[in-house]
Specification:
The chain has about 160 residues and is mainly alpha-helical. It contains 7 helices and no strands.
Length: about 160
Amino acid sequence: MPPTVILRMMLLLFVDDIKSERELMRIIPERLDYLWFLGYQLDDQIPNHSVLSKARKRWGKDVFVSLFSRVVQQCVEAGLVAGSKVHVDASLVDANASLRSVKPLDAATLSAIERTAREQVQKLDEQEDEVQQQPPRMVSQAHRASPWRQAVQNQSAVR
């Protein structure tokens, strides 16, 4: 999957305050605005949620915090948003913006944007940790080193 699509998906998670990557992947096919934003057609296969989890781990939290903060910062600098609240409207309108109206952001706004981005990444990490702590419903007999298999064997031995 192209990195631009991964970043757009992460932006959707943050902007719409979606609680997990699994939930995002579940609702993408139901939302035409999401499909359009991500460049998908109605019949395209949506990737598994693990694509986002792996990308976050591979690129690191700081990359996502930095990218999200920079996107919001650019929107604030362009006068598209105030920076204090994040809402999205997918309406298409003609722009009539003046470059003279662009002002640099103050340190407090930049700090608030970065803090929000870190909170969002932390929320996703917590969701992922909860999923990983749940024991599997089935255990592979072929994989002898599996910690879950060992736990099941130890529990059986205690009984």
